[in-house]
Amino acid sequence: MLIFSLLFFLGFYFFYFGSFHSLIVLLFVEILVLSVVSLLFFSSVSWFFLLFFILVAVCLGSYGVSLLVSVSRSKGGSYFFSF
Q: Where do the TM regions start and end (predicted)?
């Protein structure tokens, strides 16, 4: 349990105080999602809820990457301060 909370807070810390490169931010969002999925897997939650959460996380990741590509093509940069 301590490992999952450490992973969550580490991802949360780097998400807010880390680099502002958009791929790094998306990576840390996925680390946050991975820690929540791991916590849900080892707790007693139904499999349906776990699969639904994973489905939403995958959709969120693909949507984030598509927005990143779209903004990068239109603005020409991949840092958040350049938008």
A: 12-41, 47-69
Give me the CATH number covering residue 52: 1.10.287
- C-alpha 77/C-alpha 71 separation (Å) is 8
Q: 23 with 78: CB under 8 angstroms?
A: yes
**Domain span at 68:** 2-82
Tens digits of residue pLDDT in 21-55? 667 777 777 878 888 888 888 887 888 888 888 88
The number of helix segments (H) and strand segments (E) in the chain equals 3, 0
- Which pTM does this prediction carry? 0.63
Q: Which residues pair with 34 in a beta bridge?
A: none
Number of domains in the chain: 1
**In angstroms, rounded to a whole number, what is the distance separating the alpha carbons of residues 71 and 63?**
12
